[in-house]
From TrEMBL:
Annotated protein name in UniProt: ABC transporter permease
Keywords recorded for this protein, A-Z: Membrane, Transmembrane, Transmembrane helix
Regions that span the bilayer: 28-49, 55-74, 107-128, 140-161, 173-189, 195-215, 319-337, 366-384
Nucleotidyltransferase is among the record's keywords: no
Organism in which the protein naturally occurs: Brevibacillus brevis
Source organism, top-level taxon: Bacteria
Transmembrane helix found in the keyword field: yes
Pfam families: EcsB
InterPro entries named among the record's database cross-references: EcsB_ABC
Taxonomy of the source species: Bacteria, Bacillati, Bacillota, Bacilli, Bacillales
Length: 385
């Protein structure tokens, strides 16, 4: 029996389903304080940015440093395909017809990732203008070249995903980064990168390498088919990351947590005295350390707040950052007790509901105190230096 698959309808339905989830969880994130923090950080950045630009020493190679930063964001090209586990059974027989479906997903990936590149360009534009002095057509190249390179990276990385060997995929990703960096460094330095005697040797070498890279891509396209398990793994990882972020603000029923051994970090939980009264504390603290969502979010907030305390001048700015990030961490860590309760771990322990709540509160208090202590110590170290 021949099955007719409307791949366009499948793509539209999956994109609509994801867009609905994105809007719903985006509202929870905005109500959970993300919008307030974003507005505050933008205001703080606008106030101190001119001073930071003036503090950049004259010898610092701003165009080449910016090229490295831009190349990282332009080269990084994860691919959302909206594939599902059942597709291994139902869509693989129609692999020869999947080109149109995957072309739509690549357009989606380019559009979404271009927004991120645009924000990075917008963030560093004052630094570039203040140090290099952009004028005329260079302004247009500043915006146009990274976005064109983003499109090329999305296209070439998609073809490289056909390689069955992941080491080869990483090597091609490194080659894409080098090619991207060459182009950006030449553009940001206004054509002076690897140019001697008015001859742009860097551009000539880049063009030759680009031709070689394109020939290799065409061979991959002809020799290798889609790596369905790899595509599904990447899609599952990106979907899980989205759910993990959304789960900080609202319980996501379909979230599947990954537990990592993290032996280098679990020793911290052993500092808690081992006795029946600490059963809840041990469970929650160990789960927090081995979990991939809350621990990662907490560590990022601690690192970001520490960097801001070190970099920002002025007592009030440091104090505002310290308090703001403590509130943000407190908002994120509210999910500690809820996660353990939803995963039915509490019935395994001889503790009642009141003890469970006290244990969750204790873990949150320890984490917030540690964050505040680290920020204050850095603050004092800067003040005394």
């Amino acid at each position: 029996m021949k099955m007719n698959l409307d791949l366009d309808a499948i793509f539209r339905a999956r994109l609509k389903h994801f867009s609905t989830e994105l809007v719903r969880y985006g509202q929870y994130m905005a109500n959970g304080g993300v919008l307030m923090v974003a507005v505050f950080l933008c205001g703080l950045l606008a106030y101190y940015y001119p001073g930071l630009v003036q503090a950049v020493p004259a010898w610092f190679p701003v165009p080449y440093a910016l090229a490295a930063v831009f190349a990282f964001f332009v080269t990084r090209s994860p691919h959302r395909t909206f594939l599902q586990e059942a597709d291994l059974l139902f869509l693989t027989p129609a692999e020869t017809k999947m080109a149109r479906y995957f072309r739509k997903t690549q357009v989606y990936n380019f559009a979404v990732q271009s927004v991120g590149v645009f924000l990075v360009l917008l963030l560093f534009l004052p630094l570039y203008q203040g140090t290099v002095g952009v004028s005329g057509a260079q302004k247009w190249w500043y915006w146009l070249v990274p976005l064109l390179l983003k499109g090329w990276n999305v296209y070439s990385s998609w073809i490289a995903l056909r390689l069955p060997d992941r080491k080869q995929q990483r090597m091609y990703a490194l080659a894409r980064f080098c090619l991207t960096y060459f182009a950006l460094a030449w553009m940001l330095s206004e054509g002076s990168f690897l140019t001697y005697g008015h001859i742009p040797y860097g551009v000539l070498a880049w063009a030759l390498l680009l031709v070689w890279f394109h020939v290799r891509l065409m061979r991959m396209w002809k020799r290798h088919a889609y790596q369905w398990y790899r595509l599904l793994e990447m899609e599952s990882g990106l979907r899980l990351r989205f759910y993990q972020i959304a789960n900080q603000f609202r319980d996501v029923p379909s979230l599947q947590q990954r537990v990592k051994p993290r032996k280098w970090l679990v020793w911290v939980a052993r500092l808690i005295p081992y006795k029946p009264a600490n059963a809840g504390r041990l469970l929650l603290f160990t789960s927090f350390l081995r979990g991939g969502d809350l621990a990662g979010m907490y560590l990022r907030l601690v690192i970001l707040s520490s960097l801001l305390v070190l970099m920002l001048p002025g007592t009030w700015a440091k104090a505002a950052v310290l308090v703001l990030f403590l509130l943000l961490s407190a908002s994120q860590l509210k999910g500690i007790g809820n996660q353990a309760r939803h995963r039915n771990r509490y019935p395994l322990l001889p503790i009642n509901e009141q003890q469970q709540k006290l244990a969750a509160r204790w873990v949150r208090r320890v984490l917030l105190t540690s964050q505040a202590a680290l920020n204050i110590l850095l603050w004092l170290a800067i003040a005394w230096s």
